[in-house]
């Protein structure tokens, strides 16, 4: 808690901001006005540690970490900032005392949804952990006018509408128009005095907006610097006077387009010019800012690696390699070989996916047109690398008229990391086998983590309270201390309290589900949750097929002793991903039929609230009994939702994929519902061209489900609606839904058996929380600091 902060002082600050910043009197203030007033009052308390941290970093000439990411999936800021400052309970008291509903005020804040899913949320968790650990750091990103689209369902189908988080004032950002850089595109390269210089055909100005990120207990704060694009020249008067009115506003149009919208696809790379411009815009502005800050106190650019570490969040900012070479050689006169040496010591690259369709490759035609100087530099890097490390079948950066961003990022980095033990092994052996052989120490692992401040302490107050009561305070910044819960897990009293905390969250969620979807669910049921982007490899289809099989089984024998279940789905599909959209439609059609079936009643309900986002995750995850992590082995790089469920005491039903492997190691095999093929078995299975048919023929429940779908049981108005789905399971089942179905169905029966025995169940659930310490992003960031960035905490 900030020194001297009291309920009275905070109330006075809120009222002062209401009067003098918002210019409203308490009698006429709206919920929005109160939210703004409280946000400014809380913000004032961040500024002091923020100043102090920035000062210290300058005074002590600290090495800084620069995290480059096209995505930051932050969610709401107010309550998170307040709880980290120790002001949340005081804020609630002040606000309730003023006659305003605190929960409603918190929920009035729009989510900052500047990301698609896991990659963007990881960047947000990392920012919070770097602040908590006192690692001097800047996050660089884009200030999208529209974040990830909002999802609605119309007749069960996904409909996208634009997201509008900046329509109301964002109280957390500070405009820094004095921090501005010119970013060029297109044009040509000229030779001047034997040196190549780029003459861009278009330019825009990058202008900074800073958001402070405050760590636990306000001991340190870093900056998230988001760029917006402004026209370099407001208006081309000469063209206008010639009557070329449209062309006269071209600079304005370009600037307005660049930061207009986040690309909503996290699965397929499309090769769009605007996306390349966005990536270069972020990267160039960030690097110019970094070099300017360095040159403010240092002369020798050769010593840049002693003071600067730059991390590339996937290949999206991989143009950082060539851009850094360009700035060092063309602008600062460093020679190429020295520039290569510096760049490779400074840069690190995190890979987040093995899916071939997600890997960025730009046609040399498009690339050379948008970034002609960078195309030259890339050719030079490529031939430098081929010369330095000769190999007959070497896979280079430019091949088949494409620039491969993965290879570029690999070659330009001193460390390349995967995001779970299994994934890192696969990055080495199957994604970059030749490069890894040439550079055997380059690929390392940094298993992902999540911030326990947001994902346990903030979103699950009942459980956080129980933990503090049991082991005392301080676990929030030292999550391994959760192991101290283990002896208590054997006490019936503790397990009852653990179950009571879960129940409180479930009761709250029950009301929310009723409001959002109209479906009435019982808090006595097992809440079975799968929330994540909709993708074939994540196999939501397998979940819904199993749900149908379970429904069918209940109908066969309604009086049997069924464990009541609520199947909860959440997630968005990329707008152009037809197969994923069909799965969404199927989940909604299935829910409609099952929820209206009087034979099953409370034994089975299916809910799919629209527009899953960070704020929805904060409600669903604390109320979950079971965590669905059922991807085809070898496809999910890590997963981070899996870690959030574990922390909140929900055992996993899952495959040996991504970080599930490490979750199972930590929690113990007896506290994890394992099923399905391993990565090796998956590869083996695909060799049988009839794998799906063989699996379907061996499983009566699966046959029945596919039969019902083919007959139109869930789409009586359009009986042939799911013929495509059925056909794909039979004949094009690349992700092996059929082959893993029976094992999954059996594992679900195991779950029921465990849930019927409360002592067993709550033991499992509590062990999940007690053994989740490893998955704190503090542990992850410590790993990056030691093995990649060579930085130390300033605290
Ligand atoms: C690429 C090109 C053009 C437009 C968009 C993209 C793009 C955007 C996001 C590609 C991939 C994107 O995200 C991938 C992602 O979220 N990967 C997830 O990363 C998590 C954090 O490491 C892992 O936990 C998940 O397993 C992994 O799927």
Automatic annotation (TrEMBL):
Its cofactor is pyridoxal 5'-phosphate. Pfam families: Phosphorylase. InterPro entries: Glycg_phsphrylas (IPR011833), Glyco_trans_35 (IPR000811), Pyridoxal_P_attach_site (IPR035090). Its EC number is 2.4.1.1. One of its GO terms (molecular function) is 1,4-alpha-oligoglucan phosphorylase activity. The keyword Glycosyltransferase applies. Keywords: Carbohydrate metabolism, Glycosyltransferase, Pyridoxal phosphate, Transferase. The keyword Transmembrane helix does not apply. It catalyses: [(1->4)-alpha-D-glucosyl](n) + phosphate = [(1->4)-alpha-D-glucosyl](n-1) + alpha-D-glucose 1-phosphate. It is an enzyme of class 2 (transferase). Belongs to the glycogen phosphorylase family. Allosteric enzyme that catalyzes the rate-limiting step in glycogen catabolism, the phosphorolytic cleavage of glycogen to produce glucose-1-phosphate, and plays a central role in maintaining cellular and organismal glucose homeostasis. This is Alpha-1,4 glucan phosphorylase. It comes from Acidimangrovimonas pyrenivorans.
């Amino acid at each position: 808690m900030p020194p001297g902060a009291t309920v009275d002082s905070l109330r006075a600050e809120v009222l002062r901001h209401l009067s003098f910043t918002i210019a409203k009197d308490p009698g006429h203030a709206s919920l929005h006005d109160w939210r703004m007033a409280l946000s400014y009052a809380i913000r004032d308390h961040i500024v002091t540690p923020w100043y102090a941290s920035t000062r210290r970093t300058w005074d002590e000439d600290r090495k800084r970490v620069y995290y480059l990411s096209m995505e930051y999936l932050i969610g709401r800021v107010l309550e998170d900032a307040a709880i980290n400052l120790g002001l949340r309970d005081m804020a609630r008291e002040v606000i309730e005392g003023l006659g305003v509903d605190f929960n409603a005020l918190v929920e009035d804040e729009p989510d900052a949804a500047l990301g698609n899913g896991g990659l963007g949320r990881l960047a947000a968790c990392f920012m919070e952990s770097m602040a908590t650990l006192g690692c001097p750091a800047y996050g660089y990103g884009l200030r999208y006018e529209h974040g990830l689209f909002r999802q609605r369902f119309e007749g069960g189908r996904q409909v996208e509408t634009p997201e509008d988080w900046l329509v109301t004032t964002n109280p957390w950002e500070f405009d820094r128009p004095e921090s501005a850089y010119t970013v060029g595109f297109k044009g040509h390269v000229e030779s001047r005095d034997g040196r190549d210089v780029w003459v861009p055909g278009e330019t825009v100005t990058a202008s900074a907006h800073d958001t402070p990120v405050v760590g636990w207990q306000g001991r340190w704060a870093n900056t998230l610097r988001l760029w917006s694009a402004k026209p370099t020249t407001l208006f081309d008067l000469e063209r206008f006077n010639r009557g070329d009115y449209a062309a006269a506003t071209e600079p304005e149009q370009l600037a307005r387009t660049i930061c207009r919208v986040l690309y909503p696809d996290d699965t397929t790379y499309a090769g769009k010019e605007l996306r390349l411009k966005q990536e270069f815009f972020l990267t160039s502005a960030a690097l110019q800012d970094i070099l300017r800050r360095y040159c403010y106190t240092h002369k020798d650019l050769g010593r840049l690696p002693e003071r600067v570490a730059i991390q590339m969040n996937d290949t999206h900012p991989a143009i950082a390699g060539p851009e850094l070479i360009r700035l060092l050689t063309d602008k600062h006169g460093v020679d190429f070989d020295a520039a290569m040496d510096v760049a490779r010591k400074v840069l690190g690259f995190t890979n987040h996916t093995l899916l071939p369709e997600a890997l960025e490759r730009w046609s040399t035609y498009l690339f050379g047109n948008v970034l002609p100087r960078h195309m030259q530099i890339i050719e030079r890097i490529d031939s430098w690398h081929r010369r330095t490390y000769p190999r007959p079948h070497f896979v280079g950066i430019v091949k088949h008229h494409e620039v491969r961003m993965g290879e570029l990022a690999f070659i330009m980095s001193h460390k390349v990391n995967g995001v779970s033990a299994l994934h890192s092994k696969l990055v080495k052996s199957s994604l970059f086998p030749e490069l890894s052989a040439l550079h055997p120490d380059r690929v390392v692992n940094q298993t992902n983590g999540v911030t326990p401040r947001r994902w346990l302490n903030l979103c699950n107050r009942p459980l956080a309270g129980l933990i503090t009561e049991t082991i005392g305070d301080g676990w929030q910044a030292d999550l391994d201390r959760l192991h101290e819960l283990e002896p208590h897990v054997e006490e019936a009293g503790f397990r009852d309290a653990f179950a009571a905390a879960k129940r409180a969250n479930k009761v709250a969620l029950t009301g929310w589900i009723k409001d959002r979807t109209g479906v009435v669910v019982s808090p006595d049921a097992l809440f079975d949750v799968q929330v994540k982007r909709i993708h074939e490899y994540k196999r939501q289809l397998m979940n819904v097929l199993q749900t149908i099989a379970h429904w069918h089984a209940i109908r066969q024998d309604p009086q049997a002793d069924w464990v009541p279940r609520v199947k909860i789905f959440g997630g968005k599909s990329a707008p152009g991903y037809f197969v994923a959209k069909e799965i969404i439609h199927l989940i909604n059609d299935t829910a409609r039929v099952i929820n209206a079936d009087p034979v099953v009643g409370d034994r089975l309900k299916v809910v799919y609230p629209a527009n899953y986002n960070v704020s929805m995750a904060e409600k669903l995850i604390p109320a979950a009994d079971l965590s669905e992590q059922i991807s085809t082995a070898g496809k999910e790089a890590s997963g981070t939702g899996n870690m959030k469920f574990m922390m909140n005491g929900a055992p996993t039903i899952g495959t040996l994929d991504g970080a599930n492997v490490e979750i199972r190691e930590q929690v113990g095999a007896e506290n994890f519902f394992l099923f399905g093929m391993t990565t090796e078995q998956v590869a083996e299975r695909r060799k049988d061209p009839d794998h799906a048919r063989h699996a379907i023929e061996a499983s009566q429940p699966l046959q029945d489900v596919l039969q019902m779908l083919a007959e139109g049981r869930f789409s009586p108005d359009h009986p042939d609606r799911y013929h495509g789905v059925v056909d794909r399971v039979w004949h094009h089942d690349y992700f092996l839904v059929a082959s893993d179905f029976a094992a999954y169905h059996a594992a679900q029966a195991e779950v029921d058996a465990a849930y019927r025995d409360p002592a067993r169940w709550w033991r499992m659930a509590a062990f999940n929380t007690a053994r989740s310490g490893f998955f704190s992003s503090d542990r992850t960031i410590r790993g990056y600091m030691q093995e990649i960035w060579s930085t130390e905490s300033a605290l």
